[in-house]
Recover the amino acids of this structure.
């Protein structure tokens, strides 16, 4: 496929650069975080870095493919992609691999594929298409239908169970519908309704009437409210993460020198709690650098959404950008002890193939919209 | 380009995102910049373990420098309760299996560490190397488990002098408060004897090892070490060989007794009357301090000892109170001489039964009365009639004064825990007070009471130490030296920081000629043709003074007392033995004293007790 030369100028190079820097930081942190564990077991310290690099290459290839096809050409495939993702989500529940008590992965070759990551992108495509068609509507019918389209995949993910990703789906729904022009008050009411429903689900679970929420999820929620209530159990993760971050101070302890991380006080240090390692080893300065890069990416994404040629492009770009935002807030918030533990990855940094590939796909969607923003270009 | 409304909404959403970002940055600032030091300390607390390195407890040696008790390096398994996952029932099972203890014992041990969840508590001491290897192999399943090197106490002569040496035990709440800093809930402290009395000197100073550990509490490297300082070594006045002879003599002799052979209890004391140094101190039955430290049998052994009706922990030299029987008579004799009640050569017709009913043993045994006897005869044959009759003449008030001079009713000043009993000083005032809740007829002092006191029966209550004190005074013509058991205290390097000196406790003031006379009178039981101590000591090669005593207990066999010192002119050893319910002092205790004296003066083949 040949990309016309003038497209190169329209590619958002600052965005690409920011992603590249974040990915590089991610590699360094993964190396540092997994070093002691890998070497202690006699493995190469580059084991996770190599896998991450492999995912990066794969992701870039897919991203190039996505960028090269005009986003408006995807519309035809939207419904197919959506149903396919629902099928995969259903399939993972029956055929998937159970890791840490939840069925989220398909095993394909050396990789575990997480369909919920792909389903996020499918939802964005579907909502953008749906809202473009219903342009001008802003009332209950629109909100209701869009909510239904969101809750079907979100529900399947909740069953896995993967509360974090399900929350992201709901978050994406609100972000996209708000930008599409849905009535803010009615959206707010919908939010209240969902909150009340969740609170109800928690209540009946606590009371033990209907076990909607699994006990470990309930523990995580309760522990979030007071980590010291179960210091050696579920609260351990939050406390150790806060100790890691706090002890990093301004400049950090240096690469490989994070005691919380390298002595394994910090659990899942190269995956869910990778931000804690950054804050421990590179201090406030390092953590701020990462946060700034994310905000920069989000700003570029919103800028492209603003500049987009059509509402479909705007919604696609804003939706894809929102993914990064929600992951950032929930993941970093968790490590800082201001969000419940959910097990959501930090895009570009957390070691994990599915996350890396889908994050790059989301970047490709944004770039694609940006690339084809102006009529003059065509 | 988006329309105006969309632009507004994009801008609003981005502002919301920025606001949330500010919250995250604020939280980051709070954790890293404001609470940074706090969390840095927590992180260090996570990875650093302060392991206490126990100091080797000081040695206890006998007067010749022979080591009686020492410390040997061993492995101790400890647990950091905070690092041992609660829900891990399998870990508990595994640990208990490897250590050979029950889950209850583990629970009990962990309970001791309450209040210091991140400090190791000892689970099992003196673990063999095989167990250490097994633990290391299972390290991954046993987070929070430590193996430390720690000295264990070795008692080289088993139960020898157990009451004097004492034993160790796990510190209790009261002791923890008393000793304070430096002690932890699972530490061992002295519970009796020298081990308890000199706890602060023997213990030394605990060292501190700072190690870096991972989340499984596996030590990775030593960060800092503060070496422990060994405890001071204590040299006793005790003669280990003589002690062994004495204990063996007691146990072997009671086997030969006619009634209930082998079941008798009692005490042995040997001191140098010239300086108060204790050469032998034994209480029968004894206990084994090392078995009280062994984790596998500690509890059962302790229970066994505590339930034993013979009370093995009870020190029969310093704590038990006895009546002296006729061993008291030297006090009466001195009072008679000093108060000029009767001349020692004056003859008295001992018909065998006194005015208030005291009988001579010849009467009890249906033999002819002693008849005309002087004081020498009276002491030699131990005439109750003679001393009862003249005791009444000298009067209780005089007698009380003399008893007080000999130290009755007050402790001797021996530095040994548990503390000695002070006994009582019989007197009119004492009786008035002791029976204050009774009618006057019970509170009044009667001549019959004086008769009993004069012959060592009645209200008397004293320790074997106090009985010995009477003879110490006779041996030194009035000087009573405080009994001492510690000869020297040495630093680990060998510098003497304490050396005992004779401490004059009290002087019994009496005329020189009366002391001479009393000493002479006390040879009568050995030399007199009908002397009560003849059977044991008549053929003793060195001039020896001795006196028997028999404390009558209604309905039971008597307690036999025997006291001797030698050589008579320059006494260097004084031996006092009591055999509870062993019968008369001559037969129950005499042969034991003889064997101790034989050994001391080298008249017997050195007993091969090793």
């Amino acid at each position: 496929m040949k990309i016309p030369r003038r497209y190169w100028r329209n590619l958002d190079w600052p965005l690409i650069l920011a992603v590249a820097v974040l990915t590089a930081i991610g590699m360094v942190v993964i190396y540092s975080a997994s070093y002691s564990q890998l070497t202690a077991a006699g493995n190469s310290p580059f084991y996770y870095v190599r896998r991450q690099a492999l995912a990066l290459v794969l992701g870039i290839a897919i991203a190039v493919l996505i960028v090269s096809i005009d986003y408006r050409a995807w519309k035809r495939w939207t419904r197919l992609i959506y149903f396919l993702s629902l099928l995969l989500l259903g399939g993972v529940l029956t055929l998937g691999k159970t890791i840490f008590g939840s069925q989220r992965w398909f095993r394909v070759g050396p990789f575990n594929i997480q369909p919920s990551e792909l389903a996020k992108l499918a939802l964005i495509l579907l909502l953008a298409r749906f809202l473009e068609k219903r342009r001008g509507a802003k009332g209950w019918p629109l909100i209701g239908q869009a909510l239904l389209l969101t809750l079907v995949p979100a529900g399947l993910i909740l069953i896995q169970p993967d509360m974090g990703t399900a929350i992201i789906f709901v978050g994406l729904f609100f972000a996209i519908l708000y930008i599409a022009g849905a009535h803010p008050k009615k959206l707010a009411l919908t939010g209240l309704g969902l909150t009340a429903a969740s609170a109800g689900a928690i209540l009946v679970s606590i009371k033990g009437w209907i076990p909607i929420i699994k006990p470990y999820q309930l523990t995580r929620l309760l522990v979030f409210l007071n980590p010291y209530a179960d210091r050696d159990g579920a609260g351990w993760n939050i406390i150790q993460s806060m100790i890691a971050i706090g002890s990093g101070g301004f400049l950090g302890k240096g690469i490989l020198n994070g005691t919380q991380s390298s002595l394994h006080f910090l659990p899942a240090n190269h995956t869910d709690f990778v931000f804690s390692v950054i804050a421990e080893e590179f201090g406030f300065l390092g953590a701020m650098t990462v946060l700034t890069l994310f905000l920069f990416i989000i700003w570029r994404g919103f800028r492209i959404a603003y500049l987009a040629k059509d509402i479909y492009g705007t919604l696609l770009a804003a939706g894809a950008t929102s993914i990064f935002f929600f992951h950032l807030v929930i993941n970093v918030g968790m490590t800082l002890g201001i969000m419940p533990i959910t097990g959501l990855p930090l895009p570009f940094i957390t070691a994990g193939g599915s996350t890396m590939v889908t994050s790059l796909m989301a970047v490709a969607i944004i770039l694609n919209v940006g690339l084809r923003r102006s009529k003059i270009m065509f | 380009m988006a329309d105006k409304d969309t632009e507004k909404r994009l801008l609003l959403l981005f502002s919301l995102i920025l606001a949330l970002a500010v919250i995250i940055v604020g939280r980051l600032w709070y954790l890293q910049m404001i609470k940074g030091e706090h969390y840095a300390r927590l992180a260090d607390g996570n990875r650093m373990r302060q392991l206490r390195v126990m100091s080797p407890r000081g040695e206890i040696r006998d007067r010749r420098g022979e080591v009686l008790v020492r410390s040997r390096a061993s492995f101790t398994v400890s647990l950091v309760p905070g690092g041992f996952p609660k829900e891990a029932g399998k870990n508990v099972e595994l640990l208990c299996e490897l250590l050979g203890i029950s889950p209850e014992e583990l629970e009990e041990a962990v309970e001791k560490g309450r209040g210091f969840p991140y400090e190791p508590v000892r689970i099992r001491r003196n673990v063999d190397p095989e167990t250490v290897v097994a633990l290391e192999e299972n390290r991954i399943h046993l987070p929070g488990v430590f193996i430390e090197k720690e000295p264990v106490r070795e008692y080289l002569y088993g139960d020898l002098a157990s009451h004097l040496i004492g034993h160790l035990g796990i510190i209790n709440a009261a002791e923890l408060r008393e000793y304070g800093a430096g002690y932890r809930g699972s530490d061992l402290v002295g519970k009796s004897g020298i081990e308890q009395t000199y706890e602060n000197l023997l213990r030394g100073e605990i060292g501190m090892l700072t190690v870096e550990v991972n989340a499984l509490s596996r030590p990775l490297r030593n960060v800092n070490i503060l070496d422990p300082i060994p405890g001071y070594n204590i040299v006793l006045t005790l003669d280990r060989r003589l002690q062994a002879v004495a204990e063996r003599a007691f146990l072997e002799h009671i086997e030969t007794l006619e009634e209930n052979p082998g079941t008798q209890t009692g005490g042995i004391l040997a001191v140098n009357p010239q300086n108060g140094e204790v050469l032998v101190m034994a209480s029968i039955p004894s206990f084994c301090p090392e078995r009280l430290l062994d984790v596998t049998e500690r509890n059962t052994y302790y229970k066994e000892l505590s339930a034993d009706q013979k009370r093995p922990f009870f020190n029969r030299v310093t704590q038990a109170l006895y009546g002296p029987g006729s061993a008291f008579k030297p006090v009466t004799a001195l009072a008679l001489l000093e108060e000029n009640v009767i001349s020692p050569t004056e003859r008295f017709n001992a018909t065998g039964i006194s005015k208030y009913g005291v009988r001579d043993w010849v009467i009890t045994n249906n033999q002819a009365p002693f008849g005309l006897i002087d004081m020498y005869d009276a002491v030699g044959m131990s005439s109750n009639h003679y001393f009862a009759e003249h005791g009444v003449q000298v009067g209780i008030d005089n007698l009380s004064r003399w008893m007080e001079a000999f130290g009755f009713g007050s402790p001797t000043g021996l530095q040994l825990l548990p503390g000695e009993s002070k006994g009582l000083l019989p007197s009119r005032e004492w009786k008035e007070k002791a029976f204050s809740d009774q009618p006057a007829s019970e509170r009044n002092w009667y001549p019959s009471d004086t008769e009993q006191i004069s012959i060592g029966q009645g209200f008397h209550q004293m320790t074997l130490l106090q009985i010995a004190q009477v003879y110490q005074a006779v041996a030194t013509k009035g000087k009573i030296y405080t009994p001492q058991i510690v000869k020297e205290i040495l630093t680990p390097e060998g510098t003497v920081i304490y050396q005992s000196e004779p401490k004059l406790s009290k002087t019994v003031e009496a005329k020189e000629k009366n002391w001479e006379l009393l000493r002479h009178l006390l040879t009568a039981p050995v030399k007199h043709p009908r002397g009560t101590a003849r059977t044991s000591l008549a053929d003793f090669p060195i001039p020896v003074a001795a006196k028997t005593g028999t404390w009558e207990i209604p309905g039971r066999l008597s307690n036999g007392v025997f006291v001797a010192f030698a050589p008579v002119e320059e006494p260097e050893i004084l031996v006092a033995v009591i055999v509870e319910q062993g019968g008369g002092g001559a037969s129950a205790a005499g042969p034991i004293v003889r064997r101790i004296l034989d050994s001391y003066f080298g008249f017997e083949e050195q007993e091969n007790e090793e």
Observations:
- The CA atoms of residues 94 and 314 of chain A lie 36 Å apart.
- Chain A has one domain: 10-74+159-371.
- Chain A is about 70% helix and 5% strand.
